[in-house]
């Protein structure tokens, strides 16, 4: 799979989950 396509899929998934990529940090993962 092309890495760029994979990245787009991941971004879409995160957006679908209501997570802004720019807002991801250690605290975000700590809440999971």
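^ Assign residues to that structure.
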């Amino acid at each position: 799979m092309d890495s760029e396509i994979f990245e787009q899929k991941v971004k879409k998934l995160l957006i679908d989950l209501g997570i802004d990529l720019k807002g991801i940090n250690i605290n975000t993962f700590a809440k999971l």
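Residues 1-32 form one domain.
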